[in-house]
Specification:
Radius of gyration: 26 Å
Number of domains: 1
Oligomer: single chain
CATH architecture: 3-Layer(aba) Sandwich
CATH class: Alpha Beta
Number of helices: 5
Distance between the termini: 46 Å
GO cellular component, one term: periplasmic side of cell outer membrane
GO molecular function, one term: enzyme regulator activity
Protein name: Penicillin-binding protein activator LpoB
Organism: Acinetobacter piscicola
Pfam family, one: LpoB
Strand content: 25-35%
Order of helices and strands: HHHEHEHEEE
Structural class: alpha/beta
Length: about 200
């Protein structure tokens, strides 16, 4: 009797385990993502494309980049929404597009501390051949700064929900403080919760 019970238990466990398996498949990273009204990959791509296109065609920026590649850095994008949004991912995408346009060069301020530690190690550890060590003071200063905000307004009514996102980005001259360019991208998303049983 005990053996039959054990066999039945093992069979039931294997059936349950089989039912719990997950099928994973690859999708198109550029496809429209619309699982929820929350900020998603499609929103990120739309924002990056809009901002880069606006910046590169703005007359002042066209003039700035006509004969040289100005150096800029990206400041932290402030997330003013109620959601946890990786704003660094947005700025990384924008930075990649701008670099690949061949119009700008960037300094990475997120790596400044790591580079300073490496310079200190090369100079003061006694382990690095000084003939091959990097000399301090050779970094190129940024001329422009990119910074901005991501904000949202959420409205709920019954089983309907509406969220409005606004992303603002500006290019500022570090020497003069003048804002040379600014743009914003607006996104509105709506969702309707289905009623159980309908």
């Amino acid at each position: 009797m005990k053996i039959k019970f054990v066999v039945a238990s093992l069979f039931a466990a294997s059936v349950l385990t089989g039912c719990a398996s997950t099928n994973v498949s690859y999708g198109d990273a550029q496809a429209v993502e619309s699982l929820t009204k929350d900020f998603g990959s499609t929103d990120l791509q739309m924002i990056a494309d809009k901002m880069v296109d606006d910046m590169l065609t703005f007359p002042v920026v066209v003039q700035l980049t006509q004969n040289r590649r100005p150096v800029m850095f990206v400041d932290r994008i402030r997330n003013k929404t109620q959601e946890h949004i990786d704003t660094e991912s947005i700025t990384d995408t924008i930075q990649n597009k701008l670099i690949n346009s061949g119009k700008f060069r960037f300094v990475d301020m997120t790596a400044a501390n790591a580079m300073a530690e490496q310079l200190n190690y090369q100079k003061n550890s006694g382990l690095v051949n000084q003939a091959t060590s990097v000399k301090a003071g050779g970094h190129i200063g940024a001329e422009y700064m990119l910074n901005g905000n991501l904000s949202s307004i959420v409205k709920n009514s019954g089983n309907k929900s509406d969220v409005y996102y606004k992303f603002t980005l500006k290019l500022q001259n570090i020497q003069t403080g003048i804002v040379e360019w600014t743009s914003e991208k607006e996104i509105r998303k709506s969702a309707k919760r289905s009623t159980f049983g309908l």
